[in-house]
Amino acid sequence: MKNLALRKNSASMGASRTGSGEPPYLLTPAGWAFVLLASYVIWFLVTSGRPVPTLPDQDSYLEYFQLTGPDWFSDYVQRHPLGLGFIPRIITDELGWRLWIILVNWFGFTPDGAIRLTVGLANGLVFCSLARLRRPLLGLVLWIVIPTALAVTGLYQIRQGFAFGVAMMFCVVLRRPVLGLLIASTIHTTMAFPAILLIVARLSGPNNRIAIPAVGIAGALLSLSAPMLFDAFGGRRIADYAGYQAEFSVNLLVLMLSYCFASALLIMSIRYVRPLYMRSPLRELGLMHLGLIAYLVCAFLFFPFGKDRVFYLISLLLPFFLQEIRVRSTITLWMTAVLYVMIMADVYLAYQKGVFYYFVG
């Protein structure tokens, strides 16, 4: 009876890599390769040149760090008194991002140094999160090669990358997905959409037959409300996104739909996930992923501008999901094969378009 109680207690705590006699991951050759590759990527990002003409939006980020100081926040509070109306402004005005700038500037970083610090930290948070899952080296390689990951979000879409890194740290390492997405939405408003879907997934309960339709409906409703939300909170930038409607092609939609295999396979593999305490946050992320795809489908039909607010998140989650997929049948094998083929096709097309020029010239 005593041994049985010990086994139950061990199962409730989750199985570690060392629980079955295996050495800690970072002491294995794959672990060494993960640490070396992750360290090199961060070193490269922090030390390489960041010419303003070749990296989009770099002048805007330099202005963020030049113009935002302690006086900015005090002036903001004077213009927007604290109260119930202040709560949504925390997200819509991205106060988390502003507070991060104030903190970095307080330590005396130059604007260029602050950008390098933020980029390195954003990718470091992603790498720490990847390291907590089943096959970190696979996740790291996927993060490097998936076009919207390192080459875009991890390089020059700094707010999105920083918000995503914070979100993944809370989701995977701290196992607080909803809190993580809410904090991330104060850094970049985009994260408010997946945060809502994550809350729906949490409230839907453990039954996938209820949760999957619930997040799908929630994603569709969010997409239908996107024109109103964009007009209220993003209308000043609508001219900047005018070209995105033409970019939202059937090919992009098919690519994103193929990525739903990742969340479907993850949800099917949840019962095999070790440690046990990772099952709930990973399942909720998988459900959120399906909700984002439902959002994208409706955005294609009704509001093409809205696709850019979420589509990159669909591919950014692949390095986390593919680590935990278990191939247990012929159909899961075929789904996994299709998933990897679509990723390779996306990488090839992005390479042809010069997406990786910063790293490969």
UniProtKB/TrEMBL annotation:
Keywords: Membrane, Transmembrane, Transmembrane helix. It comes from Caballeronia ptereochthonis. The chain crosses the membrane at residues 25-46, 113-130, 137-158, 178-203, 210-230, 250-273, 285-303, 332-351. InterPro entries: EpsG-like (IPR049458). It comes from the Bacteria. The keyword Metal-binding does not apply. Pfam families: EpsG. Residues 9-19 have a biased composition (Polar residues). This is EpsG family protein. Residues 1-20 are annotated as: Disordered.
